[in-house]
Design brief:
By secondary structure, the protein is mainly α. The chain has 5 helices and no strands. The protein has one domain. It is 74% helix and 0% strand. α2 runs antiparallel to α3, α3 crosses α4 and α4 packs antiparallel against α5.
């Protein structure tokens, strides 16, 4: 009986890696979408919890601050893993980006008041992004074979 060898087409099975700029762009896009997705899911869960449970209305702002921080941490972690180096700076960049977006949205709406709560939220976003980057740096490296 004859043995058949399968030939693989080089064009059909080989994927080009892409330029470093494309890799960076996709890592940033993936980080942004994952952080926003995590925040949206948690905001939906939080809204359901506040609607179903007798929680005080004063807890809404701290809960939203916590959820925004988790979203920034997820973005920082995903970007740090996607880039693979300078993980703390990746996290800080994500947190600073979310803080800048919040400050810009507040300024456009005309409600940029530098109160303690608003400054605390900006700091939470920046430090949460750094926390996400640090978490990826702290995990142990995979062992070979």
């Amino acid at each position: 009986m004859e043995k058949f060898k399968l030939k693989r087409s080089a064009a059909g099975h080989v994927r080009k890696a892409g330029t470093p700029q494309q890799k960076l762009l996709f890592a940033v896009l993936r980080a942004f979408l994952s952080g926003i997705g995590a925040a949206l899911l948690l905001l939906a869960a939080g809204a359901a919890a506040f609607a179903a449970l007798p929680l005080p209305a004063a807890a809404v702002r701290p809960a939203a601050c916590l959820i925004a921080g988790i979203g920034a941490a997820v973005s920082g972690a995903v970007l740090a893993v996607g880039i693979g180096r300078q993980r703390l700076l990746c996290g800080l960049g994500c947190g600073a980006f979310y803080a800048a977006c919040l400050a810009a949205a507040s300024a456009v709406s005309g409600e940029l008041a530098l109160t303690d709560a608003n400054i605390a939220l900006l700091c939470v976003l920046a430090f949460s992004g750094m926390f996400g980057g640090v978490l990826t740096a702290l995990r142990s490296a995979p062992r070979a074979g």
